[in-house]
Design brief:
- The structure is a single chain.
- This protein is an alpha/beta fold.
- The chain folds into 3 domains: about 5-30 and about 40-235 and about 285-500, MFS general substrate transporter like domains (Growth Hormone, Chain: A, Up-down Bundle), CATH 1.20.1250.20; about 515-700 and about 875-900, Medium-chain alcohol dehydrogenases, catalytic domain (Quinone Oxidoreductase, Chain A, domain 1), CATH 3.90.180.10; about 710-845, 3-Layer(aba) Sandwich (Rossmann fold), CATH 3.40.50.
- It has 33 helices and 17 strands.
- The structure holds zinc ion (2 copies).
- One zinc ion binds near residues 609, 622, 648 and 711.
């Protein structure tokens, strides 16, 4: 353990305690998306199937519950005691602990099985192993064989248990998630109850061996049911997406959450959310053990996880369940039939309270349940302890015995309704997918060691110091109460993805700023990259992965109403870094200022200017389109749900000379991309913009067409609309991101367009886009030899290659204007006298005023200006690939990155 990890561990207590506040509107969030299922799940075909799968998966916990009580029940059977020579004390503790030894053995591998094999295959494996163990137990002749069987069961059980815990949470309809995954714990209680009743039934068989063999045999019923259930249960959509099987995942989500409709809003949203989270996790390489302690959010998760697991098992669960017989005997109830009957009743009692807790988890809230449960347990345990102490001096006092028994029942009710009911629900939902497997490993370890300690220590301690042992638990409950109050976080409402990120709230430090080793060489390096071809295989693999997302039509459409919780303000961002590498970060936007608008980005273009900023620590991208998610109090120009776009300005002063003239694209006080608001950019999932420079996108225009118009399009539009008359001949130099738009704008304005290009192969395309003439300039030093029919009035330079402008002089008309439009450095030189003699103008021009930007969008929509785009996914890989291609000059012609492929 190195110093950093040690420090991380030590620093947990200094985290600020969680304070539930009214501002945390997430607590009151409902799932806001349109969904085509019936409100009552039993009337809905898809939901019924969903519930059936989930109920079948409960078998794993049923088996676990059965096994937990098994030992206690066997203890009550005279034949079993005889067969194994009346085990007691430490030998009894050891026999009971064999299952835990098996559990321990699976700790290192359980996440590998659940993550690599998949949930279903892991469950299958677990069932086969534990069934084997069950048979070994049933037919055992010796204590060794019996213990071995229990050991084997111990290996199989946690595999299927964690597999089903994951699968239930990942499969169930969000509306049923709270209740159904919490009810999973009720099946644990039902299992425990079943053991008791089966044992009670077997008591009739007198002296036959089958008195106990049948009880152990019946244990196999659950894993066998589970095995059958796997045939009708689908694999986890989350796991499938993590394996790149997007189509299958979407089909399953649609089938079980929306009666097969892949276009359903809820399904779309879930799919989008899962894919984004998993991609983020994959890109960040967020899967090392050390990640469990790396961020403040994760450290708190691990602490809460440890408390929740150990609390459930240690805080009297051992007393309540496994050794209720001993407890009953200690207060004078010794008749086997009465003990079994009380145990049976106890199982029923457990089930009621666990179910009650589970069903109220979504209403009352997790944190409240935990707190209430602990307080109730503490108070009733105090009563139990007091009465037990009294009973010691007043033996055979029936009222006191009844008092103890009643408080014992009250104690277990509180324990079941809180800690037990929330066990599988809370553990899963506080964990993001990336660390779920590894964290559950830890859970398994804590679970196994807690069970081991209670199974082994409790009987010995209870035998030795009787009721005084309860004082230990009173102390523990007080400690746990404080810890729960300090660290447990409310997670009710919303989807499992949203619940899992609550722990990172307010943590604006990047949660995962690292680039995974695997993808490092795809980042734009500081040194010149020779060609994207060197990475062809990787790019193809990445593209393959992306294409399988986008090939499902309309699969990840975010819609205006779908981000109705404040959780949406967490943003995934792609940023530059000092070494020139693109890195992915997570950023939580602070509250909106009065004039700010939060936009859920759907598309972002990539512009040559972005290449200049890859070495700056800032969010890249300034040609973005998105849907308004929420607005500040003074915003009136746009409303929630509007589709808007923006370019590189974010704010202008409105007071300077240039703003007053309406030429706000020259405002000296402006805040623009690269100079201000570095934490906001287009290559992100959410960006907060000033209302001022947001533009509504015309309805008929696709977002892919719109994005490049926000910077590239407006750059070529401005000189055309300001300086071109209908009778002008307009020369466009270079066909690329800017040039192919300039040709279209000019041609649609009705002027004669003449294209100059060094690439013959672009001739056809130029003419198709609207050019009248095309001249190949490659290897030509004297442009008067081009054979141009008539001189040029306006020359738009759209290539970033340094040009000798003097070359064009022979073909320019007098008073011609030249507009160099790309952002280049260095000097611009032109022939001195010819410029003077012919009255030539060389003019700068930057983007468009707000007025002209609006007109450019309207013009483009009305006249069908279409951008030729290369599509990239909005992922770390996608951004890196697009940047590499842009840098290599191979983009045809404008990159658009998108979170979906719907437009
Ligand atoms: Zn730009
Ligand atoms: Zn100004």
């Amino acid at each position: 353990m190195n110093a950093q990890v040690l420090w991380d561990l030590l620093s947990i207590p200094f985290l600020p305690p969680f304070r539930p506040s009214k501002q945390n509107s997430y607590l009151n969030a409902r799932i806001p998306w349109q969904n085509n299922v019936h409100r009552q799940w039993w009337r809905d075909h898809g939901m019924r199937k969903n519930v059936l799968s989930v109920v079948l998966l409960y078998s794993a916990n049923f088996q676990l519950g059965y096994d937990e009580t098994l030992f206690n029940s066997l203890l009550a059977l005279p034949v079993w005691n005889r067969t194994f020579n009346d085990p007691s004390g430490s030998r009894l503790g050891l026999m009971a602990a064999y299952v835990s030894f098996g559990h321990m053995l699976t700790v290192p591998v359980i996440h590998m099985l659940v993550d690599n094999l998949g949930r279903k295959r892991a469950i299958f494996l677990g069932c086969i192993i534990s069934t084997t163990g069950g048979f070994v137990c049933t037919f055992s002749r010796t204590e060794f064989m019996f213990n071995s069987g229990r050991f084997i069961i111990g290996i199989g059980q946690p595999i299927s248990q964690f597999g089903t815990m994951c699968l239930i949470n990942e499969l169930v309809h969000p509306r049923l998630r709270g209740a159904s995954s919490a009810l999973n714990m009720s099946s644990f209680c039902v299992g425990g109850m079943a053991t008791v009743w089966i044992a009670f039934f077997c008591l009739r068989w007198g002296n036959s061996d089958w008195q106990w063999r049948f009880v152990t045999l019946a244990q196999n019923l659950a894993p066998i049911t589970l095995l059958m259930g796997l045939f009708v249960t689908p694999e986890s959509p989350r796991w499938l997406i993590s394996q790149g099987k997007h189509d299958e995942a979407l089909r399953i989500l649609a089938k079980y959450h929306a009666n097969g409709n892949t276009e359903d809003e809820l399904v779309q949203q879930e799919f989008h959310e899962i894919a984004a989270h998993i991609q983020q996790d994959i890109d960040a390489g967020n899967v090392h053990w050390r990640n469990l302690l790396q961020s403040a959010g994760n450290r708190r998760r691990m602490l809460v996880l440890t408390l929740a697991v150990s609390g459930t098992l240690v805080l009297g669960s051992g007393i309540a369940r496994n050794y209720s017989t001993i407890v009953l005997k200690s207060i004078g109830i010794k008749d086997p039939a009465r003990i079994t009957a009380i145990n049976g009743g106890l199982g029923f009692w457990f089930t009621i309270w666990t179910s009650a807790g589970a069903l109220s988890a979504d209403k009352v809230g997790r944190r409240t349940l935990y707190l209430g449960s602990t307080i109730g347990m503490l108070l009733s345990l105090c009563v139990i302890t007091g009465l037990s102490a009294l009973f010691e001096t007043h033996t055979n006092n029936t009222p006191i015995a009844i008092g103890v028994l009643v408080s014992f029942f009250v104690f277990t009710a509180f324990h079941q309704a809180g800690w037990t009911a929330l066990y599988s629900l809370y553990l899963i939902e506080i964990l993001p997918f990336s660390i779920r497997g590894k964290a559950l490993n830890w859970t398994n370890f804590i679970q196994a060691s807690s069970v081991l300690s209670t199974n082994f220590l409790d009987p010995i301690a209870l035998n030795a110091i009787q009721w005084k042992y309860y004082l230990v638990f009173i102390g523990l409950e007080v400690v746990y109460l404080g810890l729960v109050w300090l660290f447990f976080v409310e997670t009710k409402g919303g989807t499992i993805e949203q619940a899992s990120i609550i722990f990172d709230r307010g943590n604006s430090k990047p949660a995962s700023p690292t680039v995974s080793e695997e993808h490092k060489d795809l980042a734009i390096p500081a040194i010149q990259r020779n060609s994207i071809n060197t990475n062809r295989q990787k790019i193809e693999r990445l593209y393959g992965r992306y294409m399988s997302v986008s090939s499902v039509r309309g699969c990840v459409r975010p819609s205006s109403s779908s981000w109705a919780t404040t959780m949406g303000l967490e943003s995934i961002q792609f940023c530059g870094s000092p070494c020139g590498e693109i890195v992915q970060k997570t950023f939580v936007h602070p509250e909106l200022a009065a004039d700010e608008v939060a936009v859920k980005v759907t598309h972002s273009g990539l512009c040559g200017t972005d290449l200049h900023f890859v070495t700056t620590d800032m969010v890249l991208g300034h040609e973005a389109i998105g849907i308004v998610h929420s607005i500040g109090s003074d915003v009136s120009a746009v409303k929630v749900g509007d589709r808007v776009g923006w370019g590189y300005p974010n704010w202008t002063c409105g007071k300077c000379e240039w703003c007053l003239r309406g030429e706000d694209n020259y405002c000296p006080n402006w805040k623009i991309y690269g100079l201000a608001d570095l934490e906001q950019g287009g290559l992100s999932s959410v960006s907060v913009r000033k209302e001022q420079w947001l533009f509504k996108i015309p309805e008929s225009m696709s977002s892919e067409d719109a994005a490049p118009l926000m910077c590239g399009g407006s750059t070529v539009w401005t000189p055309l609309v300001n300086h071109v008359k209908p009778y002008h001949r307009v020369g466009i130099v270079g066909i690329g991101g800017l040039g192919h738009l300039a040709i279209q704008f000019a041609a649609k304005m009705g002027v004669e367009v003449v294209v100059f290009s060094a690439t013959e192969s672009k001739r056809g395309e130029a003419l198709q886009l609207g050019a009248k003439e095309f001249y190949l300039t490659q290897n030509i030093d004297d442009y008067s030899a081009l054979g141009i029919t008539k001189q040029i009035d306006r020359l738009i330079i759209c290539t970033s290659a340094k040009l000798n402008l003097g070359l064009f002089y022979p073909i320019l008309n007098a008073q011609a204007m030249i507009f160099p439009l790309t952002a280049s450095d260095g000097e611009l030189t032109v022939p001195y006298f010819a410029t003077v003699r012919n009255g030539l103008h060389i003019s700068g021009s930057v983007i468009a005023t707000r007025f002209m930007q609006k007109k450019a969008l309207e013009f483009a929509a009305r006249n069908g200006v279409h951008v030729i785009v290369e599509r990239f996914p909005m992922t770390l890989d996608g951004v890196q690939a697009a940047m590499a291609r842009l840098r290599d000059g191979k983009m045809r012609y404008r990159a658009v990155l998108s979170w979906n492929n719907n437009d």
